[in-house]
Amino acid sequence: MRASEKTRRLTGLALLTAIIVVLQIVASFIKFGPFSITLALAPIIIGAALYGPKAGAYLGGVFGVVVLIACILGWDPGGSVLWNANPFLTAVVCLAKGILAGLCAGAVYQAISKGPLAPIVGAIAAGIVSPVVNTGLFCLCLTLLFHDILVAWAGGTDIVYYIIFGLTGINFVLELVINLVLSTVIVRVVTARSHA
Question: Is the pTM above the cut of 0.70?
Answer without folding.
Answer: yes
